[in-house]
Backbone:
């Protein structure tokens, strides 16, 4: 018996599966698939649909610069992690923000069109937030795998075209 | 004396699949639903274990029966997964693919002139293997109306009662059929009544979608008359590693090992290292691949239904076996390949009972499967 989880697994694997594809692969009818997807969207379980992009493969001069930033913060009675996160996450330059265990508190990913733009963003917008005590910025030099998709994967099908 | 083929080799015609392979090889950009192996690569952890073993220089022969660490793990795995309990020292033999195991069984456990009942349609090597061993084949064609399951009725009708041994494969290649416990009990009773030994090819045991796989060797009175064959090719997507194993009573494994030690010596060492890792750490990969096959199975069966192609609900392996809309399935498969560039294999290539059907392998990515189904739909409408 198919479940909502099956729909999530399938869309997680390929968000471009059509309603018809999803119905064929599960026990749901097309209208049931539409219903389940609408419910999952309304409940905030599915929050968006994005392509996995290898910017380096795009043959253009336009640069896409990304950095991960380690943030340390100091909390006080009036401020918790959620409050700080809200302030940072609102910036469109921020593509992901996570609270992590270990040597630093937040793991932040920032995107911009140039190194200058990203640096300015961190020094002008992030670092001055009063609770932030330290930032360590790592520019991403090369990306090999994103969201479970390996770039430059040369796993060609080398099977015989017909076999027993 | 000339280098002409021996009579028993000459008696075996080239594989029926060969012709389609040659046709398909001549064409560019075909989508093949004619492939009898997974489209996934072996799990990375298993591949890395193989690489590491090579770096460490582990390139010698192993014990004839295979590395003990591997046999111990096979023993534990089969017990946990399917209640099959075999002693790693005396009752398990690691072979170069399940195919080698079957060949060993035919040669080591049957005398020339013995009769082997072969449930069909089936994997292409059983009948030739029997012929090479000088064994006479009794064709046991299963029927579409039974969803290609083995029944007492077809065993009786084919004269299998006179045979010395029975070989079958469930989950089945080429039909995708599986057998439930109750259905197997009927076969087991027949084999006990007529004193047949059973060679149970369970290479697709992990790939079932409707019910858990059951081995006939777990049924009362069957362990002592059964050899079970399995391997790493299908569930672990390790076909090229060439690694399988046979499990059976000590006297059977000892006899098979006697042939194995003189012909193969030991199964490939690198593959054995990969297999140890596969059993230790790649079960999640198997689950993920199985989930993918199940989705694709749903997809093709559902598309068949929409296009009015009659097909029983295949419940195992990665094959569906629809009825061919034309009278001549060979002609259909050839025309479909020429006109739509999609390769499928006519059921007749898999022996008796396969006529009038097509083997559709869904070990292919969903995008290609979708294109292939669209082409099939337009071709038959």
Residues:
């Amino acid at each position: 018996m198919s479940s909502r989880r099956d729909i999530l697994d399938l869309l997680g694997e390929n968000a471009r599966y059509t309603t018809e594809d999803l119905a064929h692969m599960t026990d749901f009818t097309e209208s049931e698939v539409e219903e389940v997807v609408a419910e999952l969207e309304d409940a905030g379980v599915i929050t968006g649909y994005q392509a996995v992009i290898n910017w380096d493969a795009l043959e253009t001069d336009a640069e896409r610069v990304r950095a991960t930033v380690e943030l340390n913060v100091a909390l006080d009675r009036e401020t918790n992690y959620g409050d700080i996160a809200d302030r940072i996450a609102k910036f469109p330059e921020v593509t992901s923000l996570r609270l992590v265990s270990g040597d630093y508190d937040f793991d932040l990913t920032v995107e911009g069109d140039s190194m200058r733009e990203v640096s300015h963003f961190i020094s002008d917008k992030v670092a001055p937030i009063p609770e932030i005590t330290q930032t360590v910025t790592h520019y991403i030099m090369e990306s090999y795998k994103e969201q479970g998709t390996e770039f430059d994967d040369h796993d060609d099908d080398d099977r015989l075209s017909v076999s027993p | 004396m000339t280098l002409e083929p021996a009579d028993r080799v000459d008696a075996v015609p080239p594989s029926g699949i060969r012709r389609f392979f040659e046709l398909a090889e001549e064409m560019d950009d075909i989508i093949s639903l004619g492939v009898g192996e997974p489209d996934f690569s072996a799990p990375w952890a298993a591949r890395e274990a193989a690489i590491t073993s090579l770096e460490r220089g582990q390139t010698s022969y192993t014990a004839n029966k295979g590395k003990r660490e591997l046999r111990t793990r096979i023993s534990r795995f089969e017990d946990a997964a399917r209640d099959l309990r075999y002693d790693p020292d005396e009752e398990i033999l690691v072979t170069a693919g399940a195919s080698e195991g079957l060949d060993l069984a035919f040669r080591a456990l049957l005398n020339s002139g013995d009769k082997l009942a072969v449930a069909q349609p089936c994997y292409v090597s059983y009948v030739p293997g029997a012929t090479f061993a000088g064994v006479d084949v009794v064709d046991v064609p299963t029927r579409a109306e039974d969803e290609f399951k083995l029944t007492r009725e077809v065993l009786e009708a084919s004269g299998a009662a006179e045979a010395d041994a029975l070989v079958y494969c469930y989950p089945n290649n080429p039909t995708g059929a599986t057998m439930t416990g109750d259905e197997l009990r009927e076969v087991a009773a027949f084999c006990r009544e007529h004193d047949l030994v059973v060679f149970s090819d369970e290479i697709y045991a992990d790939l079932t979608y409707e019910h858990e796989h059951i081995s006939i060797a777990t049924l009362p009175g069957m362990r002592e008359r059964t050899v079970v064959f399995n391997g790493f090719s299908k569930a672990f997507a390790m076909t090229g590693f060439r690694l399988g194993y046979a499990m059976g009573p000590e006297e059977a494994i000892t006899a098979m090992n006697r042939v194995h030690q003189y012909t193969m010596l030991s199964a490939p060492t690198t593959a054995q290292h990969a297999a140890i890792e596969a059993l230790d750490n790649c079960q999640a990969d198997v689950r993920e691949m199985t989930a993918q096959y199940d989705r694709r199975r749903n997809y093709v069966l559902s598309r068949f239904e929409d296009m009015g192609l009659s097909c029983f609900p295949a419940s195992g392996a990665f094959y569906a076996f629809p009825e061919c809309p034309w009278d001549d399935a060979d002609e259909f498969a050839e025309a479909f390949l020429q006109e739509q560039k999609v390769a499928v294999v006519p059921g007749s290539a898999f022996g008796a009972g396969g006529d009038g059907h097509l083997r559709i392998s869904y070990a292919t990515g969903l995008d290609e499967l979708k294109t292939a189904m669209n082409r099939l739909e337009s071709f038959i409408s």
Notes: Chain B has a mean pLDDT of 97.
